[in-house]
Amino acid sequence: MSSTQSERLRELLEPLVSSQGLDLEEIAVDAVGRKRVLRVVVDSDTGADLDRIADVSRALSAKLDETDAMGGGEYTLEVGTPGAERPLTEHRHYVRATGRLVNFRLTAGDELVARILRVDDEGIDLEVPGVKGRKATARRLAFDDISRARVQVEFNRKDDKTDATDRTGTTGANDKNDETEEEA
Description:
This protein is α+β, with helices and mostly antiparallel strands. Helices cover 21% and strands 33% of the residues. The chain contains three helices and nine strands; from the N terminus they run H-E-E-H-E-H-E-E-E-E-E-E. The chain has helices at residues 3-19, 50-65, 91-96; strands at 23-32, 35-43, 75-80, 101-106, 111-119, 123-128, 137-142, 146-151, 181-183. The strands form two sheets. Strands 7-6-5-4-8 form a five-stranded antiparallel beta sheet. A four-stranded mixed beta sheet has the order 1-2-3-9, with helices on one face. Strand 6 (123-128) and strand 7 (137-142) form a beta hairpin. The longest helix is centred in the first third of the chain and has 17 residues, at 3-19. The protein is elongated and about 60 Å long. The relative contact order is 0.16.
């Protein structure tokens, strides 16, 4: 997708996504045979369930139908969330990943797997799991020290009672549906 088309689509669709209480994370147009697929990735601090995805999908579809943003050819609109192993590229992504295990590639070339405990404007506080029975250790990373970060899927994670306090310090569910997708 050309950057001009991407910019036009973002300008057109972002206000609609925001009006639904979601953030527009990504837009991609891919050719699949003779058809094109417009993939729109949305998210929010509280996640996006199927109803929210369906609502935003209908709103985007209606807006695209009334404009020529996708040109005259056929296309399929797919609206979904970033998925379980999302890359963390924005400050809000790190905040949303609080409590999650993340694989970091550091600018020094090292790799680190750690759980995000807190996020502020300068960096993140981590809990680095202990190896072979050793205790976990605390570590602080500045955002400038991170070249890449990706959330890891955990299948055997024990529920942590501290997750009842969300990222803003208020009590509530910290559970999100990262893997919900709907094709519209």
